[in-house]
Amino acid sequence: MKKLLALLLVLCLTLAAASVFAEEDYEEDEEFGYYPDEYPESLVYVNTWVAEDGDWRIEVFAEDGGLKPMIVHRLGDNKEDVWEYAMALNPEKTALTAVPFGLHYRQDTVSGDWDETYYEDGDAVLTITEEGTLLWEDLKEDAGKDLEFEPIGNFYGGRWMKDDIEVIFYDWYEGQYDIRCYQYDENGNILADAILKGDYDPETDTVTAEGYFDPDEPFTVTFSYDEHNNVVWTQDGESTTMEYSYNVDSVENG
């Protein structure tokens, strides 16, 4: 029943986002699919944003002719509270406004099941400040009061392969990415693993991380995106385009 409810609610959000703009305003975009070409100002919101303590984040996606923010509050014990909205740029082009039936629910981060649905009539506004941070105004219960989010790029949660090495952008903690690397043999067994710590540079949209597989041979790698939205591994001046990882049998987050 929960999965059916989730599908129905996601469908409602999709239809709402698609109805924000008239169909004639859409233009095919190679990166985002159908997107209202006359509102490029919206694209600055498409990012992952985190609050200072790292327990709050906002992921903004461009889909179905609008923007879909997901606000996540990590609670511990494999639980998190989630807010989802369908949003569009306001007429003044100064903020994102929501269709007023956003979702607020609690979920299990391991199973993905919804533990509780709080409401289905949420409303919100997202605004980028002059300093480049994101503010969330929750018009339903004021949950975002005093929170300020900084951009960390779209690396969060991604899994990528470079030859026999899988890279997982595992978490964001104390101002840095926590990146896990696993090297596999031909049978899929882990030969070595490494934890890299990386800083995000918003001007270049890159992450530069340091770590080691061999304690005696630390290395530095820079991660970036190419024009096809693939992550690029750059080390010692040489760049390798990585492939998206579908390896569900490898080490899972948590």
Number of helical regions: 1
- In percent, how helical is the residue content? under 10%
Share in β-strands: over 45%
Order of adjacent strands in the largest pleated sheet: 21-20-19-18-17-16-15-14-22
Sum this structure up briefly.
The protein is mostly beta strands and 254 residues long. 7% of the residues lie in helices and 50% in strands.
Describe the structure.
The structure is a single chain. The chain is mainly β. 7% of the residues lie in helices and 50% in strands. It has one helix and 22 strands. The chain has one helix at residues 2-18; strands at residues 26-29, 33-36, 48-50, 56-63, 66-76, 79-84, 87-89, 96-98, 102-108, 114-122, 124-128, 134-138, 150-151, 159-162, 165-173, 176-184, 190-201, 206-211, 219-225, 231-235, 238-241, 243-244. It has a nine-stranded antiparallel beta sheet, with no helix packed on it. A hairpin with a 2-residue loop joins strand 4 and strand 5. The longest helix has 17 residues, at 2-18. The radius of gyration is 19 Å and the shape is globular. The two termini are 26 Å apart. The model is unreliable at 1-37 and 250-254 (pLDDT under 50).
Features:
single chain, 254 residues, mainly beta, 9-stranded antiparallel sheet, 7-stranded antiparallel sheet, disordered N terminus, disordered C terminus
Secondary structure topology:
Blueprint: H1 2-18, E1 26-29, E2 33-36, E3 48-50, E4 56-63, E5 66-76, E6 79-84, E7 87-89, E8 96-98, E9 102-108, E10 114-122, E11 124-128, E12 134-138, E13 150-151, E14 159-162, E15 165-173, E16 176-184, E17 190-201, E18 206-211, E19 219-225, E20 231-235, E21 238-241, E22 243-244
Antiparallel strand pairs: 1-2, 3-4, 3-13, 4-5, 5-6, 6-9, 7-8, 8-11, 9-10, 11-12, 14-15, 14-22, 15-16, 16-17, 17-18, 18-19, 19-20, 20-21
